[in-house]
Design goal:
This protein is mostly helical. It has a domain of 100 residues. It is 77% helix and 0% strand. The radius of gyration is 18 Å and the shape is elongated.
């Protein structure tokens, strides 16, 4: 079950990233990325997390012990099962795609070409916070000049 969920989530994210990077930014496409891509990943995350917390889908993190985010050992134990890894990975996929969508919208609003956007989006897809950091550096001068900091 977890292997299937992992594969489906990866495929969904990959399709959404490819659309975001390669296709024209039609309003319907952007809505699909937000609601079908990010929304479904968030739903899968929520269902998986509840399943793990209750012990219904995966005993790791469930039961009396609960989840321990206060130590490396506690976090390691959460990721010690296929369910924990899958839910954690879906968390990354959803947030990175959300950040990529924000970058694309921000870049379009500030007039950056798709040639500038593509490598930043690819960096965000491959290493989320790195791509976000690169975007924050790239956009800074134009954002300051336009007075649009949002």
């Amino acid at each position: 079950m977890w292997e299937t969920a992992f594969g489906v989530a990866n495929l969904l994210a990959l399709v959404m990233w490819a659309a975001l990077i390669l296709l024209p930014r039609w309003p319907a496409l952007m809505a699909a990325i937000l609601y079908l891509g990010i929304g479904l990943l968030c739903l899968a995350y929520a269902l998986g997390l509840v399943g793990i917390l209750t012990g219904t889908l995966d005993p790791v993190g469930g039961g009396e012990a609960g989840m321990d985010f206060g130590s490396i050992e506690g976090v390691r134990s959460i990721f010690a099962s296929d369910g924990g890894v899958t839910v954690g990975w879906i968390h990354y996929l959803a947030f990175d795609l959300f950040v990529g969508l924000w970058i694309a919208r921000d870049a379009d609003a500030k007039g950056f070409s798709r040639f500038v956007q593509a490598p930043v989006l690819l960096a965000t897809f491959l290493a989320g916070p790195l791509g976000l950091f690169v975007w924050l550096v790239v956009r800074e001068r134009r954002a300051r000049a336009s007075g649009r900091w949002q």
